[in-house]
Design goal:
Elements (H helix, E strand, L loop, with lengths): L19 H14 L10 H41 L1
Length: 85
């Protein structure tokens, strides 16, 4: 089975196919001619890894934000001690 993105199907400008039969005929012709670009469909393991990476990036962003908030909170305390010296 070959899967291709609808965006990657060659199409003439202004050419609109509203009939499923004509569209299927066009797709089969393009497939035989080798003009369709196959796309990779990720399996469950790949999707799980992508979700893990996204979650890791989100946690790192949240950690950086909290660190900045702590620094902003502590900065006036540090400056006041510095002025007393």
């Amino acid at each position: 089975m070959c899967r291709s993105s609808p965006r990657l199907v060659p199409q003439k400008s202004g050419d609109r196919l509203k009939d499923d039969c004509r569209y299927a005929t066009k797709l089969s012709t393009l497939l035989r001619a080798g003009e369709l670009t196959p796309v990779y469909v990720p399996n469950n393991e790949d999707e799980a890894m992508r979700d893990f990476v996204r979650a890791r990036v989100d946690v790192r962003k949240a950690l950086r934000k909290v660190k900045q908030q702590i620094n902003v909170f502590l900065l006036p305390l540090y400056e006041s001690k510095r002025e007393k010296r």
